[in-house]
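Pilot study result, target chain (192 residues):
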Amino acid sequence: GKGLSEFFTPNTLEVKEIWRDITKHVETKESRIRAAHKWVGSQIKYRPFVSGTLTIAGKTSRQDDLWMQPSMTRRVGVGNCANKAFLLTSLLRNELGSNEVHCVLGNLHNGKVGGHAWVEARLDRSYIIESTRGDVETFVPAAIASRYEAVHYFNDQESFVIEGRTILEPFQDFYSTWLADYLDWAYIQGRK
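Predicted structure:
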């Protein structure tokens, strides 16, 4: 029952503390964005499925693909592609305006197509930031990343959809076993 914007918490004490810690001696905007990307990639372990049990008003429900707010993702130290993108977007909102950074839900193409989440930032042009990996290039020009098909853009202030596109299901199944092997610079550019 959460609205998409509720998964972004750039102004919470915990997110601001992370941002301050990872950027305190970093001078440029691009370097601060790289530091946040690297921190999320190295400190939050990628898991294709994050399961959890929720209890609300005495009713309990088990979820096998749990989306969490950034503070919970930080506390548990694991996240699926959406959880890691929510955290990275929240961190970057401390540097970039709401019109400059969005979490994106869309499709990732690799023979089979399935749903995926990533971050898109607008600097001199649009860049995809792969939030599941901190060891790949931070700024991938969106114009050359043809394997990424955006459907929904959102953050704490706004959301919009690309009409005529649909996120394919299952959202995570196709990418869980090979994400770490294939999301590298050559793959993103379409050379693999």
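One observation from the pilot: Residues 170-185 have pLDDT under 50 and may be disordered. A full batch analysis is planned for the follow-on phase.
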